[in-house]
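User: Please fill in residues for this 540-position structure.
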């Protein structure tokens, strides 16, 4: 057994680069190096250097050599064992800025997996991505290698547009997308998730991962930049990485290689851009391109948000983009106290009754806005196929109700509000004046109207009303003075909205995209706040 306290050059060389101080490094990389050294010192693991050398010899067929960080990750992921046949880190997670060469690493790794060096028959590799074009990128890179070396490699491989096969092992490389027909393939030896930031839920991920384990030495590689989806699988992965690197959480076989700017100030210092991209030092042309992109970013940060989100792995929110910082949205997921009998204001919002409607009750409790809400969606809504969010899961958890038939009848949310008024002291409800007409009759039958001689408990909100209360809402989120319990549906609603500031400094909220991003729950909250001028604090 090799000396497990001494790292092989392929691993040590990269650790030395990080610690040399030659370039500004991400703090996560220092933590990564600490993790590797600690694991080799404390655990009885070893690197199969003979196998690694054979794998790396395949670089002769590729138009590039792996960078030191890639060699390090490759060795740890593919050739480091607890015992023969048992990999120490079968799950590699690479989180690097755009331009680091992610597809090149994927191509080399997938090529190696299907060869006799891996030593496993029918060790199929499935490459997943949210779009077909992205999923095809790595297989196309491998086919280019095979075509370039056709005279040498044609005797060992066969390939077409759908599949790449090693003749000796029978192992195949296939691309997969989120389409229902392509998600099931069965019994892969390894899977790759390319640009995981695109996934909004775990539906395809869970199906793909469940196929692992039917072949010896199952492997998984996730490789991605950051993106604009919040609250999805990537955000969960980032929390897990943070726990492994800094909080002593067990890695459970996950090798967390993460690179991002250490703080937002680094966006304006090209010398620090290396923190997010360990390949940048080898790509002077990429640095020139990024300098051009930076000038565009300075001119219009909103339109060029990808520069910080994907180049720097610092997903940003801007004053004229997201409603609030994502950490403030997560803070709203704290448990709610018992509010029975407390004063509240109702809120309701919808775009079309043939689509989705949300309603809720707003409370003021010890200076915080508390929100209890429910939503309904028409099962026949033409927008449902576009929505990637886990609607069925939210329905199973009681946050959402699917309604059969041609529409969500106005009586449904109206009756829900009436039922809440029996539990809480609902003083009034807020609703968009433009949407009020269709729900007028149902609300009146439920005890809500605008008649001065009647209940007079409906407050109609207009654009100018929202402008007046938008600063109140933004301030409440910034102070973490909003709570709606464990409610990923509300998280989704608010993430689908953004704020716009006009020349006079007035702020309004808008929907990011018309069909696949619903905002009804957030705007119901907005209408309730707009109607809450006389709402008493029930926690005092």
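Assistant: Residues filled in for all 540 positions:
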């Amino acid at each position: 057994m090799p000396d497990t306290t001494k790292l092989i050059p392929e691993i040590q060389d990269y650790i030395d680069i990080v610690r040399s101080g030659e370039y500004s490094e991400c703090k996560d990389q220092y933590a990564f190096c600490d993790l590797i050294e600690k694991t080799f010192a404390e655990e009885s693991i070893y690197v199969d250097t003979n196998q690694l050398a054979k794998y790396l010899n395949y670089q002769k067929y590729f138009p590039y050599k792996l960078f030191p960080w890639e060699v390090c990750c490759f060795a740890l992921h593919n050739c480091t064992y607890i015992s023969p046949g048992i990999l120490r880190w079968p799950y590699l997670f690479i989180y690097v800025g755009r331009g680091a060469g992610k597809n090149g690493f994927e191509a080399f790794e997938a090529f190696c997996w299907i060869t006799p060096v891996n030593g496993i028959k029918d060790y199929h590799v499935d490459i997943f991505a949210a779009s077909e074009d992205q999923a095809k990128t790595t297989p196309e890179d491998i086919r280019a290698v095979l075509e370039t070396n056709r005279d040498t490699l044609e005797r060992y491989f066969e390939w077409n547009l759908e599949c790449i096969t090693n003749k000796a092992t029978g192992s195949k490389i296939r691309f997969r997308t989120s389409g229902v027909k392509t998600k099931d393939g069965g019994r892969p030896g390894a899977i790759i998730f390319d640009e995981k930031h695109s996934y909004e839920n775990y539906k395809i991920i869970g199906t793909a991962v469940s196929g692992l384990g039917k072949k010896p030495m199952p492997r998984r590689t996730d490789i991605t930049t950051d993106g604009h989806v919040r609250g999805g699988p990537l955000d969960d992965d980032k929390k897990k990485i943070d726990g492994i690197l800094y909080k002593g959480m067990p890695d459970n076989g996950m090798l967390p290689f993460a690179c991002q700017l250490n703080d937002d100030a680094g966006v304006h210092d090209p010398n620090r851009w290396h923190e997010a991209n360990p390949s940048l030092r080898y790509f002077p042309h990429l640095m020139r391109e990024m300098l051009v992109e930076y000038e565009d970013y300075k001119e219009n940060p909103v339109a060029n948000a990808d520069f910080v989100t994907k180049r720097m792995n610092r997903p940003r929110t801007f004053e004229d983009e997201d409603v609030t910082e994502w950490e403030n949205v997560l803070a709203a997921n704290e448990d709610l106290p018992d509010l029975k009998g407390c004063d509240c204001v109702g809120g309701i919002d919808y775009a079309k009754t043939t689509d989705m409607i949300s309603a809720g009750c707003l409370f003021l409790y010890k200076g915080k806005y508390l929100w209890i809400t429910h939503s309904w969606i028409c099962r026949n809504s033409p927008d449902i196929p576009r929505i990637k969010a886990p609607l069925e899961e939210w329905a199973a958890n009681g946050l959402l109700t699917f309604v059969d038939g041609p529409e969500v009848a106005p009586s449904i949310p109206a009756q829900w509000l009436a039922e809440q008024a029996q539990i809480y002291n609902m003083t009034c409800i807020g609703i968009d004046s433009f949407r009020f007409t269709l729900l007028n009759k149902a609300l009146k039958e439920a005890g809500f109207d605008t008649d001065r001689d009647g209940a007079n408990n409906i407050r109609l909100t207009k654009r100018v009303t929202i402008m007046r209360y938008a600063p109140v809402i933004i301030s409440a989120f910034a102070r973490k003075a909003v709570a709606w319990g464990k409610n990923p549906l509300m998280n989704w609603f608010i993430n689908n909205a953004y704020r716009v500031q006009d020349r006079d400094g007035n702020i309004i909220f808008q929907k990011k995209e018309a069909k696949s991003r619903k905002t009804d729950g957030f705007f119901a909250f907005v209408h309730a706040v707009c109607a809450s001028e006389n709402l008493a604090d029930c926690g005092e």
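For context: Confidence is low (pLDDT under 50) at residues 179-185.
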